[in-house]
């Protein structure tokens, strides 16, 4: 016990001098783009001299092993048996400290019930085990740690941060970051957001289009929402690494790449139909990602007669090795907040084609300057744009230059302004 205590004290001595942490609240560290951005922002804030806590409502996900000593992992739950704690400890790197926050029977429970009782129509959802526990655990974190600010990502993070702050009876600065199109929110989540979002200190959005959408749907003044684009960090070593997929090792094969969760938003059926229209039988299509639509997509590929030329490798730990060798990257989404993979493909020097979906693609590609934009759901137009892109000799250096606009330094500087300094904008009343 004494040795462990000494080790803990040595760790504290090496921490930034700002003792009050900045908390980044996210539902989990699953394999999505928002979760990866949470790690990038956390590391950037730590490099700028801030203590950073990653507050997780669910302590599982592909990115847990990627966390390093720049941030502490804090769980927001009450039901953490010793086996779950050991599982989390094994998942994270040895340099990472882990802390657990959870509500105990206290007057906070009665406060929670009073809050929920005033919310007709969504009280049952808010009283569910996960919602109640994470909000009360966040309140415990806020009261004990007194963070300088909280950055809430995605819906789970919003619930925990906003309700936790109210229940803790603190004036902690809470910044809500809109990252997904409003159409992605469930009706109950929209009602919750309209009730509690006005209590946030400030708002950000990952694209101008999403900022306008959020302002309209949430009844917020557009000028209250600052656009902070997602950063892209593509390590040269990962882009240069040998790809695990055999098709990328054969220079005679032209591989078209797509990446994303296999579900409706990404509209991979349109991409499969577009690929089936291409005449070149040497072309291959790789769709990296996992999700509930896998079986339906595999069946569609068989119906289209392209099953032997399409592969679904699942979640790929290093997609940059594939992007740097693909002949073309295609985004077929119906909607986005801001497509991280589109920027990452540009950063790898890969030519791109994208649907002109709401939101972000037109902003990333500057109205088609850096890649063709086609109507959503139009497989014929997508196939034509893909053929044109494959016939054109790409300027890979110029594509990488465009991606350099979305730097980690720029994004972290903007988040630091709005989290620590108020960002120079009028706050929501």
Folded structure, characterized:
- With 429 residues, this protein is of the alpha/beta class.
- Helices cover 42% and strands 15% of the residues.
- The strands form two sheets. Strands 4-3-2-1-5-6-7-8 form an eight-stranded parallel sheet, with helices on both faces.
- Strand 5 (149-153), helix 7 and strand 6 form a beta-alpha-beta unit.
- The longest helix has 17 residues, at 129-145.
- It is globular.
- 45% of the residues are buried.
- Residues 1-17 and 424-429 have low confidence and may be disordered.
Strand percentage lies at 5-15%
Q: What is the total tally of β strands?
A: 14
> What does the overall shape look like?
globular
Tell me about the largest β-sheet.
Answer: 8 strands, parallel
Low-confidence stretches: 1-17, 424-429
State the main characteristics:
alpha/beta, disordered N terminus, 18 helices, six-stranded parallel sheet, 429 residues, disordered C terminus
